[in-house]
Automatic annotation (TrEMBL):
This is PTS system, galactitol-specific IIC component. The keyword Transport applies. It comes from Ligilactobacillus animalis. InterPro entries: EIIC-GAT, PTS_sugar-sp_permease. Keywords: Cell membrane, Membrane, Phosphotransferase system, Sugar transport, Transmembrane, Transmembrane helix, Transport. It is found in: Cell membrane. Transmembrane segments: none annotated. It holds the Pfam family EIIC-GAT. The keyword Phosphoprotein does not apply. It is a multi-pass membrane protein.
Length: 90
């Protein structure tokens, strides 16, 4: 049981250090200052970040995909469709 606490302590320290390392990228994505994601799942970002950079060069994946861009593409009914899709009403 004591060994479990030691391993958990090491993992927590490692997660907090990873959170500090990714803080700048999280701030760029969300626009919120001082916010980070100190979670073990962020270690997958080490693998997925190069794949993301590669996909940025493919034009079909490099389009905006937020609610304003979807509404601009689909017209006035796009907002209703997006709301229905996100709420599970479809």
């Amino acid at each position: 049981m004591f060994l479990g606490f030691i391993v958990a302590s090491i993992q927590i320290i490692f997660e907090l250090k990873i959170g500090d390392a990714w803080q700048r990228h999280i701030e760029d994505m969300t626009g919120m200052e001082g916010v980070t994601v100190p979670h073990f799942i962020t270690l997958f970002a080490v693998i997925l970040n190069p794949i993301n950079k590669l996909l940025d060069y493919i034009l079909i994946f490099n389009k905006p995909f937020d609610s304003e861009a979807i509404q601009k593409r689909s017209g006035s009914s796009g907002k209703i469709k997006l709301w229905a899709l996100s709420s599970g009403s479809c």
